[in-house]
């Protein structure tokens, strides 16, 4: 399911499936995108930040068009203990690889991959980004 911002409307709460993963998309060319994510973060239960929240930063192939400093993204990553994925969605191969990666992350967060928990996978992602 896709939402443009949080909180989600409450009138359909009883029909909403369990939420296993939240991916906040940030378009590096849009300060409005970052502001929307920052405002939405207040509506996420603190338990989700234990491996079930990721930031997906798009538009990274155009460094000269950036409106958002990478430092602002790093601050989000640190403040919410949530990994950041960078991609360029305009390239089909990267778009497909990113979709496959997100699907695998969702499977792990939903508990469908034996031997992996959302928290252990998130820590693994963060540690590999630090290398």
Automatic annotation (TrEMBL):
GO cellular component terms, A-Z: chromosome, centromeric region; nucleus
Subcellular location, principal: nucleus
Coiled coil start-end: none
Compartments in which it is found: Chromosome, Centromere; Nucleus
Source species, domain of life: Eukaryota
Keyword field: Centromere, Chromosome, Nucleus
This protein's record includes keyword Cytoplasm: no
Protein name: Centromere protein M
């Amino acid at each position: 399911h896709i939402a443009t911002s949080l909180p989600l409307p409450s009138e359909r709460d009883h029909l909403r499936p369990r939420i296993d993963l939240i991916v906040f998309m940030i378009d590096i060319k849009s300060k409005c995108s970052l502001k929307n994510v920052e405002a939405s973060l207040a509506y996420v239960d603190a338990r989700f930040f234990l491996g079930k929240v990721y930031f997906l930063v798009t538009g990274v192939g155009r460094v000269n068009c950036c409106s958002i400093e990478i430092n602002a993204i790093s601050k989000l990553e640190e403040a919410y203990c949530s990994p950041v994925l960078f991609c360029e969605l305009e390239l089909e191969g990267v778009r497909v690889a990113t979709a496959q990666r997100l699907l695998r992350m969702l499977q792990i967060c939903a508990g469908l991959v034996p031997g992996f928990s959302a928290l252990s996978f998130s820590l693994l992602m963060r540690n590999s980004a630090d290398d």
